Every structure is written in C-alpha cells, then in structure tokens.
Amino acid sequence: MRRTIVAGNWKMNASKESVNKLILGILSGMSEVSSEVVVCAPFPYLSQVEALITHSQVKLGAQNLNANPAGAFTGEVSANMIKDFGARYVIVGHSERRSLYRETSSLVAEKVKAALDNDLTPLLCVGESLEQREAGETETVVAEQINAVIELVGIGAFRNIIIAYEPVWAIGTGKTASPEQAQAVHLFIRSLLGESNESIAQGTPILYGGSMNAGNANELISCADIDGGLIGGAALKAEDFLQICKAG
Ligand code: PGA
C-alpha cells in the first residue's frame, strides 16, 4: 500500500505574518489528517516554518535547489542549506522553473541527484504543455523528463523519489485534468518505471498537481494510481489545504 502525500507549494507567496497564520491554521486541523503532509516554503521562511512545526506531523520542504554543494554561485541555495533548516523534501523541476528559468531535464536530473546525495526527498515534477497534449506528445514528454533522471541516478533511487504529474495547462488555471486524464498519465508513469523495476514502480508515490482544490481532491486521489497532490493556490488557505489533506 502506497502512502498518501499532500504537499503545498506556496511558490513566491509568503510574509512572516501570513506564514504564521497559515501554519497555525494547518496545525489546528492535523488531528483529523492521516496522510503525509508537506509544506514547501520559500527559502527565507524555512526557519520560521521549522520552528512552528516542531513536534507536529507536518513536514517541511523547499521549492528548488542548486545542484552544486557549495561555492561561488551568488543567490543560489544548496541541498545542505535546505537540510540545515529542517527541510526533508525539495520540489525539483517544477514547470515554472523548466519554462521561466530554462531548466532542462538534464539539469533537473542533476538537482535530483544533489537532493538524494544529501538525504532530501525530491518531489520530481513532470508534465506536458497544452500544445504538447494537443499534439499527442504527453507520453513522450513525460517519458523524456523521467528517463533523464533514471539515466543519471538509476531506477533504485526512485525508492526515495516522489513524482508529481503536473500538466502545465492545469497549473494555476482552474482547469483541472479530469480524473480519467490524470489516472491515464499516472498509469503510464508507473508502467514506465515498471519497465526497469516493477516493485519500485508499485512503491513510488505519484502525486497529481494542477488546480487541485477542496472540491476535486477526493475524486482525483481516489484514482488507483494517484497517491496524493501537489497543491499551489489552494495550499495558501489553511481550511482548503486541510480539506485536501483529509481527502488523502
Ligand atoms: P496550482 O499549482 O494548484 O495553483 O494549480 C500547482 C503547482 O504548481 O504545483
């Protein structure tokens, strides 16, 4: 039985005040939540969240990392620094980073490796654009994104990787993939992993992301191969986020 994971991706939305309110709100409802809950905060707030979630079931993640261990990389943040603030997860290869910051699949693979080398669990994001979906390229795109990681770190490393399928056309658009559309791609991803190792394929959590909210989470998460969600907009309101966590 795979565990259910719900992760919040706050993106570039936070202030000391809003973080306080959001975390306290989430903590107040955690007794009714059985899924694994992760909040991925912007770097400057990791320390604040670390302190707020002490002794709770809520886990901390970052949203990006640099693949290098240390050195002259002005403005960048390493895996070790993230770990230093109590984070155990890191989002890697989010479509906003792939498109706005030109992160290639090989760079994403390097970042996954750096995370794993430092005992951080990567939340590896994959997904196709609307154009690619309409051209029938969904599986080719997702396979290329995942194969780049398998090639660098090996299939065995997927014991410690969480995949998030996030169709780019569904992110922040209010246009969710239907449970059938999402399930089909999740099953494809699992079969792709299964070509290298069936037991790893069965054990790897695959989350759905893209306009998941309190209203549609149940239906999505109850699909056979959807093991939770990576939540953007709806993760910024404690009540909505908790509702999704309870769906798991
Ligand atoms: P969204 O974002 O839930 O706001 O669509 C999801 C994500 O980008 O991870």
In short:
The protein is α/β, with parallel strands linked by helices and about 250 residues long.
Q: How helical, in percent, are the residues?
A: 40-55%
Bound molecules: 2-phosphoglycolic acid
Total helices: the number is 11
Percentage beta strand: 5-15%
Q: Report the principal-axis shape.
A: globular
Q: How does the helix and strand content classify structurally?
A: alpha/beta
| Mean pLDDT across every amino acid position | 97
The CA-CA distance between the termini, in Å, is 13 Å
Give the C-alpha Rg: 17 Å
Write the H/E string, N to C: EHEHEHEHHEHHEHHEHEH
Largest sheet: 8 strands, parallel, barrel
Describe this structure in words.
The protein is of the alpha/beta class and 248 residues long. Helix content is 42%, strand content 15%. The protein is built from eleven helices and eight strands. An eight-stranded parallel barrel has the order 1-2-3-4-5-6-7-8, surrounded by five helices. α3 (79-84) links the parallel β3 (58-62) and β4 (89-92). α1 (16-29) runs parallel beside α11 (238-247). The longest helix is centred in the middle third of the chain and has 16 residues, at 138-153. The radius of gyration is 17 Å and the shape is globular. It binds 2-phosphoglycolic acid. 2-phosphoglycolic acid is lined by residues 9, 166, 171-172, 209-212, 230-234.
